[in-house]
Amino acid sequence: MQHGALLLALSKDEQIIGIGSGTTIEYAVEAIGQLTEYQPGSLESNARDLCVKYNLELTSLDIHHKLSVAFDGADEVDESLTLIKGGGGCLLQEKIVASSAANFIVLVDERKCSKKLGTQWTKGLPIEVVPMAIKPVQIRIKEVFGGNPLLRPAGTKMGPQLTDNGNFLLDWHFDPQANYDWHKVEDTLLHMPGVVETGLFIGMTRKVYVGNLDGSTRILGE
Could you list the residue ranges forming a coiled coil in this record (predicted)? Predict the structure, then answer.
């Protein structure tokens, strides 16, 4: 992805920048690190190692509760710029950072773009759930929506994966051919006792930078 295209998204007034933990986010961090006017700026970040690598000062939302702009990746983005995020398990903190920014900009490669959610990202919609509610929430999702909400395993050790907040993750495998109203889906999920957050990011971004496989960049939402 071209750094020049990313830098066009920034203005000189945007000193407090949010950085998520998506796999493409290093492009943004590297580009920001090249701008001397941003060196004294601060970031709210789940990607602390990257920020340290590029000499960007860290802060927190306790200190800077309003961000000028936030950058993050996505697991999938559809034609209406609705996102699925949370493949890495940081959906709650990423949504907090994104919602604290006046401008939320998403960076993906072209393989993450689809007409309908679930066609490119086939690992399910991440849903963060408090541990004691896992089974009731699984049952309720099946009753309301069908599909298969699976408890995400830790992978490198026994047991389920823990989020940064000590919760479990369900990956809801839904029918990508179904015509879901994602606003209603999210509202229904968030009203299930025990559900903390979902990986649906609806209406949160107005601009998505897409890195094409040929090295060029295009912008969705303009």
Answer: none
